[in-house]
Each structure stands twice: as structure tokens, then as C-alpha cells.
Amino acid sequence: MFALSRQEIALVLVTMLWGSTFLIIHIAMQHSGPLFFVGVRFTIAGGMALLLFRKRMAAITRREIGAGIAIGSALFLGYFLQTYGLQTISSSQSAFITALYVPIVPLLQWAVLKKPPGLMSWVGVALAFTGLILLAGPQAGALSFSAGEAATLAGAAAIAAEIILIGLFAKSVDSRRVTAVQLLTAGLISFALMPLMGESVPAFSWLWAGAAIGLGLASAIIQLTMNWAQKSVSPTRATVIYAGEPVWGGIVGRLAGDRLPALALVGAGLIVAGVLASEAKFSRRKKPRTAAPGTEGAG
């Protein structure tokens, strides 16, 4: 019988929430630069986490600080590049390209942890890459992705690194303290890079302010839930659940007026197929042992 644990149900709800954020960011980028928006979003999220877990923060360890900084750095890079891309590509495109973090995970594990991907991981990568070509459009046949598409793809790789880091630290740290550190790290890196990247503070707008505050709260909930749930939900199972994110992003984008061409829809479908294929596992059935003559019923 099909059943989901509390942790898995929480990840499904987080995935639905996650998928709806693409359109919000796409609209907010018309009124703010990416570094400022990411900075406000994650500093607010980190402040909320600090306030919520203030009694536990006193017991924070060096390992938790290090884990939070490492995860937060990957978190910043992933969301900054995604936000940058949403200045020029649609929310639906962004959602499906971002989903490529799933087949990228085994490739990163191979490069960093020396764990080669299995057959289905390679199948997933092939399907997802083909889907990306179709989603990006005819011009991508010459591998000339737009700046927004290229940035979003790089952001997907950073999110893959974040997931690997969460899995690496999840069972040895307090998820609440690490969540606060990683959110603040992402926000502070963003603000620190603004003068270096020549990005100025935008004129006040309730649109970007409301979006940043709302997404700050959403980010705190998403990161805390991921850190909590992945203590008992395997990375494989969690990633299959996360595969629903681009579908929700595409649905929200469609309701808001995004109209992807037929070829792009085929590409989006191939990306989702690649995501699911990369996490498919096949087990061989063991042949039943034949009891030796005269031992039936023994024991």
C-alpha cells in the first residue's frame, strides 16, 4: 500500500511552495537587482531562524558553523544565479532548467567523492541534457544558450552541491542551528558582493519588499524542513519528491500566462523524465534456495 511518512509529506508541501517561487522572483526582478533581492530574502530568513531558535543558538559548535557556512555559500550561488537568470527567461523555463540539479548530483559525486554514476544516472543525464536543448530553443543547437539560461544551469549545479553538503552534515549537526547560519551566510555574501559587482540599492517598492519578505519566510521554512526531513528520508527518495518542483513551477507559470512552444514542452517533459530516471533503482530478484534432501522442516 502506498503511504508517505510525515517527513515525506512535508517535502511534498515544500516542493509545491518551492515551485511557486519562480514566478514571484521573475516579477520582482523588474524592480530589483539579483544580489540585493537575494541578500534581503536570506537575511530576513536567517533573522527569523535566529529569533525562532535563539535558545538553541548558544550551544552551536564549530562543526555546525562550518557546515552552515559551506551550505550557505552553495545556497547563495544557486539562488543568485537562478535569480539573475529570471531577469531574462520565463519562470517556467527557470523551473525546468533548475530541475537539472538532480542528474547533476551523481556527476558531482563522481567528481568530488569518486563515486561513479550508475547506468540509470547516465540515462537521466542524457534525457535531461536533450530536454535542456529543446527547452532552450533552436538556437541552443549550436550550444549558444542565452546568458539567463546559462546562469540558471550553473545555479542548478550549485543547488546540487548544496544537496550533497546537506546530506554530508545532516546526521551530525543540529538542523535548526545550521539552518540559521546557512541562511545568514547566503544573505551576507549577497550584500558583500553588491559593491564589487556594481549593483546599487533599488528604489523602494512594495512589490520587491513584499516578495523578499514573503520569500524570506518561505526560505526559512524550506531550508529547515529539508534539513529536518533528510535526517530520515534518503537522498534518493527526497530527490524523487523534489522532481515535482518544475511541474509546480510550470503550472504556476502557465496560469500566469507563460506559453512555452510545443518543442519546449517536449524538452520540459524530457527533463522531468531524466530527473526520475536518474533516481530509478532496479534490484535483481534472488533465486530461492533449494533445500537439501532430508532437511525440509529442519530448525
TrEMBL record:
<dbReference type="InterPro" id="IPR000620">
    <property type="entry name" value="EamA_dom"/>
</dbReference>
<keyword id="KW-1003">Cell membrane</keyword>
<feature type="transmembrane region" description="Helical">
    <location>
        <begin position="203"/>
        <end position="226"/>
    </location>
</feature>
<feature type="transmembrane region" description="Helical">
    <location>
        <begin position="9"/>
        <end position="29"/>
    </location>
</feature>
<feature type="transmembrane region" description="Helical">
    <location>
        <begin position="262"/>
        <end position="280"/>
    </location>
</feature>
<feature type="transmembrane region" description="Helical">
    <location>
        <begin position="150"/>
        <end position="170"/>
    </location>
</feature>
<feature type="transmembrane region" description="Helical">
    <location>
        <begin position="35"/>
        <end position="53"/>
    </location>
</feature>
<feature type="transmembrane region" description="Helical">
    <location>
        <begin position="94"/>
        <end position="112"/>
    </location>
</feature>
<dbReference type="InterPro" id="IPR051258">
    <property type="entry name" value="Diverse_Substrate_Transporter"/>
</dbReference>
<dbReference type="GO" id="GO:0005886">
    <property type="term" value="C:plasma membrane"/>
</dbReference>
<keyword id="KW-0812">Transmembrane</keyword>
<feature type="domain" description="EamA">
    <location>
        <begin position="9"/>
        <end position="135"/>
    </location>
</feature>
<feature type="domain" description="EamA">
    <location>
        <begin position="148"/>
        <end position="276"/>
    </location>
</feature>
<feature type="transmembrane region" description="Helical">
    <location>
        <begin position="65"/>
        <end position="82"/>
    </location>
</feature>
<keyword id="KW-1133">Transmembrane helix</keyword>
<feature type="transmembrane region" description="Helical">
    <location>
        <begin position="119"/>
        <end position="138"/>
    </location>
</feature>
<keyword id="KW-0472">Membrane</keyword>
<dbReference type="Pfam" id="PF00892">
    <property type="entry name" value="EamA"/>
</dbReference>
<dbReference type="InterPro" id="IPR037185">
    <property type="entry name" value="EmrE-like"/>
</dbReference>
<protein>
    <recommendedName>
        <fullName>EamA domain-containing protein</fullName>
    </recommendedName>
</protein>
